[in-house]
Amino acid sequence: MRTALANGRLLTTGGLVSGQTLLLSGARIEALVDPADSRCRDAVTVDLEGRLLLPGFIDVQVNGGGGLLFNDDPSPESIRAIGAAHRRFGTTGFLPTLISDDLDTIGRAIDAVQSSLDAGMPGVLGIHIEGPFLNWARRGVHDSRHLRPLDTSLVSLLSRLRGGRTVLTLAPEMTTPEIIAKLAAGGILVSAGHSEASFAETTAAIAQGLRGFTHLFNAMARIEPREPGIVGAALYDEKTWCGIIVDGHHVDPIMLKLALRCKRHDRFMLVSDAMPVVGSTQSTFVLQGRTIRVVDGICRDENGTLAAVRNAVSLLGLDIVEAARMASEYPAEFLGLGSELGRIAPGYRANLVLMNDELEVQKTWIEGVASV
To answer: CA of 7: how far to CAs of 16, 20, 66, 359, 370, in Å?
Structure first.
């Protein structure tokens, strides 16, 4: 079955284009063609009515949604419900994220994601294990009872997901550069967060394969005149990626604007760090025994949806092209999936999001299948 998405403004690798039709063939993008192309005649045509068609958003940090927290129910059913809740906000690829917990729960979460991948569940790209190898002083909402150093005995557990991506957030000072190298060699995407690491400790970790930084600025030691620390290392290094939460609450927009002046934009990616309230009517939820309340749309501890695309335009002054790439192309590159996700180009997976001029999501496609 061929689908023709016509009469839209499409974000291609060359920028926004109009007057072209996007052909989808099954789960893949076939071609970007002139509307008079003969292949359009036999296709099911969808009129985009002049709206924006963007690559589907990829969120590498999704703790929950639809009233569910992944830690509470690390199962394929929970993953499916969380994914459905986030799809309404344009997320077509995500990593269910487990915050610090016991080793048994980590194992069950990995198994749930493996089952989801094996079943071809829409949008699931892997797992993000955030902790428990974090610094107690920067733990945030993470339960201190679960925090622990990372030694070699746990490498096999953390590395056992097949066919998807595993992101592991750790504090570099809670392990060794040698273990980080072993994790990276095993295919784990190591990210630093919830950390008091010095500049030297962080750069040593980068040299051994540290790939990114989890919610830059949040739960990290501050930059000091005589100690740039983990934030200084994140902004100084040219190759690593930084996840940023753009909600006007977690980080002052001025700090994020400064970060964007320090480093190439293609090394930043929008994340939600989303909790159960996304896609739900609930105003409270329980996080490891603590009641979290939503006040004026903000959880007092964690919150988010990839409405961050709209926020990146309104709060950071980015244009829609760059904001959209921070939510799609750049996280795809971080995950090592840049050859098949994050762009509107022939051969790529047909993961797309349609938005109006107010940057509100109208429809999504995951591997060619439209939302209803």
So the answer is: 13, 7, 33, 17, 17
CA distance 238 to 124: 29
**Residue 139: partners with Cβ closer than 8 Å, 6 or more residues away:** 100, 147, 194, 219
Q: Where are the alpha helices (DSSP H) in 119-192?
A: 155-158, 177-185
**Beta-carbon contacts of residue 145 (< 8 Å; ≥ 6 apart):** none
Distance CA 173, CA 220 (A): 12
Q: Is the pLDDT of residue 133 over 60?
A: yes
Sheet hosting strand 57-62, strand order edge to edge: 57-62, 91-99, 126-130, 165-170, 189-192, 212-213, 241-244, 268-270
* Cβ neighbours around 252 below 10 Å, total: 12
Which active-site residues does the annotation give?
273
Give the percent of the chain with pLDDT over 90: 88
Mean pLDDT value across residues 113-141: 97
Name the residue type at position 34. Answer: D
Question: Which pLDDT score, from 0 to 100, does residue 300 have?
Answer: 41
- pTM for this model (two decimals): 0.92
Is it the case that residue 301 has pLDDT exceeding 80? no
- pLDDT of the residue at 7: 98
